[in-house]
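EI: anyone free to look at a 266-residue chain?
SC: sure, send it
EI:
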Amino acid sequence: MNMNDPKPDEGLTIAGKTYRSRLLVGSGKYKDLDETRCATEASGAEIITVAIRRVNIGQDPDAPNLLDAVPPSRYTILPNTAGCYNAKDAVYTLQLARELLNGHKLVKLEVLGDEKTLFPNMPETLKAAEVLVKDGFDVMVYCSDDPIQAKMLEEIGCCAVMPLASLIGSGMGILNPWNLSLIIEQATVPVLVDAGVGTASDAAIAMELGCDGVLMNTAIAGAKDPVRMARAMKLAVEAGRDAFLAGRIPRKFIASPSSPMAGRVA
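SC: here you go
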């Protein structure tokens, strides 16, 4: 075995398709489409989430089209239901997205509880997930970090669960790593942190915990230099994944010398 050539990461598989990048990025909050394009390229992401209610992907032929900056020929477009507060609106929004994207099945479901916290409304999320799965969608779902409800979403048939690390856009990082670990331990579908990432170390921690990926928008788009931050996030996700695969040393309350004492010269 060549010690300088570790076994490569097998990639992130969602709904039967494998992606090299475990970083998923949003497309909102950039100053213009050129910055969106440059940051997306720097991130190395292959899945780009799009708020159907807020971004033009062809609904308005007279307005700039996001798909000119992040073309579906290069990226997997992940329509989401940002701005929906009930199951009915969320289902309708994704059915519209399917028409706009020529039968596209992979979607991100998020049903929000209120405008202040943007915390997920889990009863409505569960209701919408059930309808969408039955309608043939491949559903990635934004949810609370409740292991019981995450398992319920998996049992409904969602292809990935996406618990929040902290409130959307807050930049507070991972506030409850223990709940995330419980969700990861029981899951048989990919688990991706969604919401709350603020900087590269947050992304690395999520991956070190064993998450399959990280989705972010504000942490990149809201940075002073979005393109540089996008590159930093790419490296952080890769580093965190490598650290997880390598296996960290156990935490101990005693010191352990770096140089072995056995066989010392004097």
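EI: The chain has a mean pLDDT of 91.
SC: 👍
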